[in-house]
UniProtKB/TrEMBL annotation:
Involved in the restart of stalled replication forks, which reloads the replicative helicase on sites other than the origin of replication; the PriA-PriB pathway is the major replication restart pathway. During primosome assembly it facilitates complex formation between PriA and DnaT on DNA; stabilizes PriA on DNA. Stimulates the DNA unwinding activity of PriA helicase. Belongs to the PriB family. InterPro entries: NA-bd_OB-fold, Primosome_PriB/ssb, Prisomal_replication_PriB. Homodimer. Interacts with PriA and DnaT. Component of the replication restart primosome. Primosome assembly occurs via a 'hand-off' mechanism. PriA binds to replication forks, subsequently PriB then DnaT bind; DnaT then displaces ssDNA to generate the helicase loading substrate. GO terms for molecular function: single-stranded DNA binding. This is Replication restart protein PriB. It comes from the Bacteria.
């Protein structure tokens, strides 16, 4: 299964573009920071991740503020031209700020 959940902030939003089929596409860069346990040690994690959203998700994404934090869900794939992986965002929602971790609505 190829499914990724990631809490990250929007570091960069490129200009909205359209695919040859006329579908809106929003390219972006996301930044993630956290701590994880690995081999009994606490590790600081910092990562920049290229991402893209299409269709209605792209239209919603283009209205968001650079620096805002979200919980992203999607899958990873190699881009047509280039190296590495790109997160294809299929859904995003606000990061909950309460202690229960409950989610309070979508954008």
């Amino acid at each position: 299964m190829n499914h990724l959940l990631l809490t990250a902030s929007i570091a960069e939003l490129k200009a909205l573009r359209y695919t040859p089929a006329g579908l809106p596409a929003q390219d972006m860069v996301l930044e993630h920071e956290s701590q994880v346990e690995e081999a009994g040690q606490t590790r600081q994690i910092k990562a920049s991740i290229r991402a893209v959203a299409f269709g209605a998700v792209a239209e919603r994404m283009r209205k968001q503020v650079v620096g805002s934090s979200w919980r992203f869900a999607g899958f990873v794939a190699n881009p047509r031209l280039g190296k590495g992986l790109v997160l294809h965002v299929q859904e995003f929602q606000p990061v909950s700020t309460d202690s229960s971790g409950a989610h309070h609505g979508r954008t």
